[in-house]
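G., the chain you wanted modeled:
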Amino acid sequence: MNLNSSITLAKVTLIHALLAGLLITFHGFVFAEVELRDYPNEEIRGHYLRLIDELRCLVCQNQNLAASDADLANDLRDETYEMLLNGKTVADVKEFMVARYGEFVLYKPPFSPATWLIWIGPFVLLAVGLTIAISIARKSSNTGARKFSQTDAKRINQLLGK
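Predicted structure as tokens:
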């Protein structure tokens, strides 16, 4: 293999690497599913977009309906759209979804006895963690060098041969 063919091979490899990088980078844009819907007015469009942002995908559990590509999320988006077209309000749609799937379907569940742990739990855990950290810090600062009496110092010096 001569020098010219190695340079050509390096150029081809570089071009392939760049193309692969571009494909990986733009893969989401190229393969993104575009949802085309006709809205009778901007109000319904706004309600729809708000709802699919506030409702959780029950399959993915960590994504809202807008971000999920699961079949159930697709069905729930369709159902939300149809309900809004049929004159239901945002509250009606949320009430329907909660009645059918429970409060877990809401990304921001209301403060109620069933969800108080979700809302207050992180603050309680933070307070407990800070209390433990402070008590450990205090204990470690109290275990400093022990003060010896003169007899203890003499005994230590004798043992060390000083």
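Residues 7 and 100 are 64 Å apart (CA to CA).

Shout if anything looks off.
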